């Protein structure tokens, strides 16, 4: 499920850089990409990272051994923060206002961080989590459902200054998501993509 989202981001980005894309198509795809990534990161921070962090903390005492900063890096908060900062900047730009070259360059910066981050998740974070004692198919399917439901009330725009750990992120996301929804109504001309 999570890796499906990752694959989706990559195919959207490939499409963005593909032939026959005019500026209007790129702008729409850029907005849709920012929206998908914001929802995905928000749901991960609500559902997956606390689980992973709890599992790793208990089994390997990783926080104690590595310290908070290194643990945050391993758990992906680091990558999310960099990505949110860059996507926030991209979100405040448009092709019309800033030009196609600058807009694409900013998205490209964000996507480089994203590619690196999703590779870390897929090759390190999730496999380590899945190999922990007590993590079985039932738990994974339960988390998958929670992840999907967190996405349905997730923020749809990047908020780099919002809290990223429970319980404060859940409260902040719940309050912010409707405002993002309103702004998206305008951006997507009354038809924000529904998940
Ligand atoms: Fe992530
Ligand atoms: Fe992810």
TrEMBL record:
This is Hemerythrin-like domain-containing protein. PANTHER family: HHE DOMAIN PROTEIN (AFU_ORTHOLOGUE AFUA_4G00730). Pfam families: Hemerythrin (PF01814). InterPro entries: Hemerythrin-like. Residues 24-127 form the Hemerythrin-like domain. It comes from Volvox carteri f. nagariensis. Gene3D superfamilies: nmb1532 protein domain like (1.20.120.520).
